[in-house]
Amino acid sequence: MAEREIIKEYSKDDLTVVWKPRKCIHSAICVATLPEVYDPNKKPWIEPENASVEELKSQIEKCPSGALTYSIKGETKNLEEMTDNTRVEVMANGPLLVHGTLEVKDTSGKTESKTGVTALCRCGASANKPYCDGAHKKIDFVG
Ligand code: SF4
Ligand code: FES
User: Which of 10, 68, 71, 128 could form a disulfide with 76 if both were Cys (CB 3.0 to 4.6 A apart)?
Assistant: First the structure.
């Protein structure tokens, strides 16, 4: 059975930061860009009130995995655009990022549809294969 998507939401004025932990590849780009908002040692780890809406939007658009998205006044910004033009990007020392729509068929024959960005494990250490779960960081994967 497909794992249910976990979705966490954090609001600032009309903007809601949406985080999907299963999509996060722990690139830490969010932490490096807005450390006053993203702090994995805090609970909650996202504090949107510490940045302007513009800063938050611009940072969220840089999340490489699509784990972060946002909605404005309840309307989701479609960062996960449906497109026929599927593109594969190799992330240095990290996963393969597949941008676009695709179907993933697992070893039992079950297929899952994916949109936006899908991070596929390249290091072999993920506990959630074929997807990246950030384990490449822990094993210091180089490649
Ligand atoms: S994948 Fe996105 S949410 Fe996860 S650490 Fe990187 S920038 Fe942050
Ligand atoms: S590439 Fe990220 S866990 Fe393997």
Answer: 71
Compute how many other C-beta atoms are within 10 angstroms of the C-beta atom of residue 135. Answer: 19
Separation of alpha carbons 54 and 58, rounded Å: 6
Ligand nearest, relative to CA of residue 119: 2
Cα(10) to centroid of ligand 1, in Å?
15
Q: Which ligand is nearest to the CA of 132?
A: 2
Return the sign of the alpha-carbon dihedral for residues 22, 26, 32, 36.
positive
Digitized pLDDT (tens) for each residue of the chain, 143 residues in all? 455 779 999 998 999 999 999 889 888 889 999 999 999 999 999 999 999 999 999 999 888 888 999 998 877 765 555 456 889 999 999 999 998 888 999 899 999 988 888 899 999 999 989 999 899 999 999 99
Pocket test for ligand 1, best of 7, 9, 27 (most atoms within 8 A of CB): 27
